[in-house]
Amino acid sequence: MASVRVHNASHITISPSPALGKDPLLLLPLSFFDAIWIPLPPIQRLLLFPGATPDLHSLKSSLSASLRCFYPLAGKLTYLPATGDVAVACSPDDHVTFIEASSDADFIRLASDEIHDVDSFLRLVPELDTKVLPAPVMAVQVTKFESGGLAVGFAVNHAVVDGRGLWQFIEAWATACREGEEAISDVSPVVHGSTVIRHHPCGDEIARRILKMVAPELPIIISEKLNMEEERSELMRRTFPISRDMIQSIKQRAKEGCIQYSTFTVLSALTWISFIKTKGMEDPNEETVLGFLMDCRTRLIPPLKDNYLGNCLKPCFAKAKVMELIENAGLSKACSRIKEKIDESSKDVLGGCEDWVGEFKRNTKLVNVLIAGSSSFRAYNIDFGVGRPSRTELVSVNHEGQVVLVGGREEGEIHMSVCLSPSHMEEFTKEFSRELCV
Q1: What are the b/e assignments for 17-38, b being 16+ CB within 10 Å?
Q2: For residues 78 and 87, is the Cβ–Cβ distance under 8 A?
Q3: What is the tens place of the pLDDT at every residue in 234-287?
Q4: 310: left (phi over 0), alpha (psi -120 to 50) or beta
Q5: What residues are paired with 417 via a beta bridge?
Q6: pTM for the whole thing?
Q7: pLDDT single digits (tens) 304-360
Q8: Which domains does the chain have, with CATH numbers?
């Protein structure tokens, strides 16, 4: 088995930041959007670059400069017993751990195999200890391959940032490394937490109630990591590149009269149907559930600005009977159910937010497919000055039926990563490929 050797671990501090000012400590309490994610393992994101390696000094100095704008990522997640809040504690002395490593793995195989080598991927992302607060928010690992190539791995606490916020940071860091620190001089410092999410009159109290439900022993956090790691080791993953032409074809097939469905809707619907057929669900009246996370940034009133870093995701669940999805008009029916849920959730974005944790728990065992990510995440446009990545992966995919979307290499392309048991992956691949090409 290929090895990864750690050569050095250093602390990258923040370049002087006007956002932090001269105050010794800035506390950013979590919003109710953030609190939901406290017990979950960190987001682990990996990018594999085939080109020459940028020098470590450039990577470190540009990281320091980028943290000037994204300073909560260098902070510590901290429990405040006097109020029952959890906050990101930020100070001028904050840092991110930067791990330097090397590997004798076959880079070309890791970057090109259709079936993922998850064990190898896990060694290319850093560990982040979040069991007891205060805990670090983020760590970075840079691994050089003896065969050529570079891996940049991230681990970040999901209670502080969601996928959109993380990609914003990665883009800024890559730009500063490629073009110089002055290239991000006009990037606005991020804002975060319940001090910004003032869209609900009881928001602070809801956040505290959620924290008591999901982390009743604070500052100790009983993580779901062990159970997830056990399930993860038994699953298989595969990535499907979906071209713009394929997407347009699916949209045309799904179209109902003047109703044109979105890219997210048609891909989610097609994946949902493929899962149902793969699993061979025989009872036509059995209810099947598609879960997805709706980004609420632009749906709040007033909407959040682009520099909001924290979580802003609402859990949504579209439901249909098996027979509705496997009949001839199944694609249109699936799209209709997903759109109905998006429209309903958009009309009352914060409706029932005090029960989002309960709703998620009630639906977890019923969900057949859970869609995360977004085709708007420009994963393959990231360039640290050595060219774009040949593969990007969300390593922290933990459950059967999880699906992750990101923008692909080509214009209009989308990459869809699917997590399934080995016994179902081959059949799903055939079914999904067949549905794509109808």
Answers
A1: bebbeeeeebbbbbbbbbbbbb
A2: yes
A3: 789 999 999 999 999 999 999 887 789 999 999 999 999 999 999 888 788 989
A4: beta
A5: 239, 404
A6: 0.94
A7: 999 999 999 999 999 999 999 988 889 999 999 999 999 999 999 999 999 999 988
A8: 4-223 (3.30.559.10), 229-436 (3.30.559.10)
- What is the residue whose two structure tokens read 């540009």? 62
- Position 87: which residue type? A
As a three-state string, the secondary structure of the chain is CCCEEEEEEEEEECCCCCCCCCCCCEEEECCHHHHCCCCCCCEEEEEEECCCCCCHHHHHHHHHHHHCCCHHHHCEEEEECCCCEEEEEECCCCEEEEEEEEECCCHHHHHHCCECCHHHHHHCCCCCCCCECCEECEEEEEEEECCCCEEEEEEECCCCCCHHHHHHHHHHHHHHHHHCHHHHCCCCCCECCCCCCCCCCCHHHHHHHHHHHHCCCCCECCCCHHHHHHHHCCCEEEEEEECHHHHHHHHHHHCECCECCCHHHHHHHHHHHHHHHHHCCCCCCCEEEEEEEEECCCCCCCCCCCCECCCCEEEEEEEEEHHHHHCCCHHHHHHHHHHHHHHHHHHCCCCCHHHHHHHHHHHHCCEEEEEEECCCCCHHHCCCCCCCCCEEEECCCCCCCEEEEEECCCCCCEEEEEEECHHHHHHHHHHHHHHHCC
